[in-house]
Amino acid sequence: MADTQQVDAKADRTAAKLAKQISAFSKAHGGAEGQVAYLGDRGARIALVGEDGDWGNLVAPTVEIAQKAVEKAGITVHEDFDGEFAAKVRTGPYEWTRMAGIQVGGPKNG
């Protein structure tokens, strides 16, 4: 029983730490929305999009911890990263260069 309590306490601390990071992102960007995606053995990705269009990602060890974190942070969570939610993302030259490089076989030098 003690092992289960230790695991639950660690999961709660991890969720609280992630919630704090999510809340800080939200505060810095005029609010935020998110989406939780399963990453397999790596855990879950929490994609965040600020009201100003800036975006970022956090990784949680499990989907359950990610869901607890976004719930504690009090942000709107989307089922999918598409439509109006995806349209809020503001990309810059760096992202466009990286995406173009990936499409043509890697980033260009020079």
Structure in words:
This protein has 110 residues and is α+β, with helices and mostly antiparallel strands. It is built from four helices and four strands. It has helices at residues 2-28, 63-73, 83-87, 93-103; strands spanning 32-38, 44-50, 55-60, 76-78. The chain has a four-stranded mixed beta sheet, covered by helices on one side. A hairpin with a 4-residue loop joins strand 2 and strand 3. Helix 1 packs across helix 2. The radius of gyration is 16 Å and the shape is globular. The relative contact order is 0.16. The mean pLDDT is 87.
Condensed summary:
With 110 residues, this protein is α+β, with helices and mostly antiparallel strands. The protein has helices at 2-28, 63-73, 83-87, 93-103; strands at 32-38, 44-50, 55-60, 76-78.
Q: What gross morphology would you assign? A: globular
How far is it from the N-terminal to the C-terminal residue, by CA? 60 Å
Radius of gyration: 16 Å
Low-confidence stretches: none
Oligomer: single chain
Order of helices and strands: HEEEHEHH
Structural topology:
Layout: H1 2-28, E1 32-38, E2 44-50, E3 55-60, H2 63-73, E4 76-78, H3 83-87, H4 93-103
Parallel strand pairs: 1-4
Antiparallel strand pairs: 1-2, 2-3
Helix pairs in contact: 1-2
Features:
about 110 residues; alpha+beta; 4-stranded mixed beta sheet; 4 helices
